[in-house]
Prior knowledge:
Number of domains: 1
Shape: globular
Low-confidence stretches: none
Order of helices and strands: HHHHHHHHHHHHHHHHH
CATH class: Mainly Alpha
Helix content: 55-70%
Amino acid sequence: MPPPSLLERKRETLRRELDSLRELPTPSQVVHEIWRVLDDENASAATLAAVLKRDTALSARTLRLANSAYFGLPNPCSDVRAACVVLGFETIRGLAVGVAALDGLLRPAARVLDVPAFWRHSIAVATAAESLARRLGVPETGTAFCAGMLHDLGRLVLAAVTPAEYGALLRGVAAADLRAREVETLGASHDEVGDWIGERWRLPDALREAIGGHHGPGSEDGTWSRWGALAHVADVLAWRVGHVSAGTPPEESAAPPVAPEALASLGLDPAAVDKERTALESELERIEAFTIAVQGLR
């Protein structure tokens, strides 16, 4: 066998480092239990609330988000069970699982990334993904929201565990060149790293498809997965309304193109994407409200 190339060695080294990091935050067991409960068609709001309450911080944050201006409820929810009833299980899926998965990585990543900008972009992508799911008749709207929120998980991981290298990498790199620079410098791109972490965390396949496949086909035959294509289109929509990925230089803020193959796999045309952009532009105030609430600034 030929000797491994330098890039292959870098890739394997990075993967070993990530696999050996005991301090890498992991979503609590409650997160996996929430997903299991939400997949049970016989589950009740009381059952879901009982699971959420096992994680005091998660239940408090879910309640705060439910009462944020993002949802605009006429009357505030006084407890988690009420939030489950008013918002619905699919919304709770996106809120609780998405926020909990990112939460532990944000503080160490803040050394490199603009955290508010990261949240705005992630929430914009989540909002667009949820809207696209409704347009396409996909019933798992909460999964779509969660997939959008987690699509850049790999960027958080790289910023958290390799801050010096990733910070230097980000300085001056064009958005279109980011993934190639990640591979060249670290051995893997952020979408690949995100998929590794999704595997380690035992995230559902839909989320891993979105995380690992939002920049390109996730299969060897070049076919886009549904969740990868959905996250890709939602990502572009977020760029189009001005919520670019954290760390993007101002002069590189133009939206990337939508892959025609991703549109075709979803059965969408450019006119539908334009309508989704208009819809997302009307949600900018709500996205800002979510950003404020999730960071606990008010």
